[in-house]
Structures are given as C-alpha cells and as structure tokens.
Amino acid sequence: VMLCSASVLNLLFITTDRRLVLRYPLDYHAIVTRPRIAAAFCLVYLVSLSNSFLPISLGWNTADGRVQNSGGGGGASTACRYRSDNPWYALTVGLVTFIGPLLLMLAMYANILLIANRTSVHNHHLPLKPIKTR
To answer: pTM, whole model, 2 decimals?
Structure first.
C-alpha cells in the first residue's frame, strides 16, 4: 500500500510540476525551489507511510477495531497476515491514495491541454521569420 501510494502521489506532483511550467513560465524557477521540492518529496512519503501503517497499527482495518497480529492473548493469532474487514478503511485508503489524486491529475491535464491549445492558436498567427545563418 505504501509504495503504490507513493507512486501515485509522485505522479500527482509530476503533473503539478508540468502544469506550473506551462501556467507560470516566467515565475517557474521562483515558485519551484529546492526546499519546496524537498518538502513535496517528504510530504509524499509521509502521507504514504501514515496511510499505510498508522491505520493498520491502530486497528482501523478490522471490523472490531482490534489490532491484528499483536499477540495480545484472547486466542489472537500471531500469524502474519493482513485482514481488512472494515469497508470504511478500504474506501478511505482508496479515496486518499488513488481516486483523489486521479481526479486531480485529470483536472490538471485538462487544464494543461487548454493552456497548450491556447498557446498554439495564439502562436499560429504569428509571422514566421527566416533564421539567418552565417
């Protein structure tokens, strides 16, 4: 779950970067700085880690809320296996790590297409000047 989440979120940040290049070409280097890139990178893995391990370690993935594989007695099995009986957990994880970023990427790529189309139409009417070579 963690690596898939990180992969999808990295794709979201790549899409965001492409949109920023086209939307703010002159201000791009002022907007996208090394500290902001590092913060985005850390955010991707922080969200991925928290979305993967925090709910499982708190028992949110089970219907009764018990942490599985904890060996806490009561006949609890210590066999290492994953169980997801809670549909709300699966829905939340799916929305945060897949559906949400997918919808954002689709909206951004639609905006990128509009920007590129507008730029192409605008530049199409400009007269072309031959390049002088020596």
So the answer is: 0.71
Kindly calculate the radius of gyration of the chain based on its CA atoms and give it in whole angstroms: 23
- Angle (CA) 97-36-94 rounded to 5° is 5
pLDDT 10s digits, 55-78: 777 776 666 666 766 655 555 555
Sign of dihedral through CA atoms 84, 89, 93, 99? positive
Distances (CA, A) of 103 to 26, 95, 96, 108, 118: 27, 10, 11, 9, 23
Residue 101: strand, helix, or coil: helix
Give the torsion through C-alpha atoms of 101, 107, 111, 113, to 10 deg: 90
Ramachandran area for residue 118 (φ above 0: left; ψ -120 to 50: alpha; else beta): alpha
